[in-house]
Amino acid sequence: MCKMQQASLEMRSRHCNGGKPFPGDAVTVTDGLLLAAAAFGAGLLNTIAGGGTFLTFPALVLAGVPPVIANATSAVAVFPGYLAGAVGFRRELSVFDQRRLIRLATVTLAGGLAGSLLLMVSSNAAFSRIVPGLLLLATLVFLFGEQLRVFAARFSKGGEPGITGLFLTSIYGGYFNGGLGIMLLALFAVWGMRDLNQMNGLKNGLSFVLSAISVAAFAFAGLVAWPQALVMIFASMLGGYAGAPVARMIPRGVLRGLIALVGFGMTVLFVWRAWG
Hints:
The protein is mainly α. The protein contains 13 helices and no strands. It has helices at residues 3-14, 29-48, 53-62, 67-88, 90-93, 98-120, 124-143, 145-154, 164-175, 180-191, 196-221, 226-249, 252-275. The protein is globular. The N and C termini lie far apart (42 Å). 46% of the residues are buried. Mean pLDDT is 81; it is low at 1-10.
């Protein structure tokens, strides 16, 4: 076995519990249904309002995947949605200066890689204790995202955006993806951006770049439960496709309330799991 393969197996075994077989080796029917339902819902939510991480990550943990690997696999599961979003907003992205986009993408890549590496060196025990705080933060950011964006716009300085805020936000996104899109929108508001379509286009483009480097790093390190990930990728794509007609039927406020309820519920559940 080559050194790269051996390093990958060592990383994988470090994040499994008590030397048990890696949970990506098989998917039971019950777990498959749970993961497919969560991923379908995540694709649906991400298309309409965001918040899919509140479903994919807890479902993987409940299916027996260790927290660090569950977080990495969740990032892989929602990755196709970011690609579709970036393609869908290609017209909005085309208005940005190409050199500026490359500069922003480079900063995002660096931050995303740093966050991914930070996750790789986190133990399951440490990450499990951090997760409730991350879920609570993501839920609050999601719930008050519009107010956060408006508040940030008041402090807009305009001009050339700084890279520090983007780098720190990208580290968070590489480590834990929940609420990333809303944080990026608030950051863009601080930069002086006002066109929401352009802001969403840039958000989707940078989210895709960040997710790409994170997925590559997690796959290289052997932290992805691929059988589970493949089930979830397919289901999330179906959910994303179904998102548009559902969006026309469910009031946005009701949907946001349900997502927030799930987020708070998952926060309580993981507090109990980590500290109970």
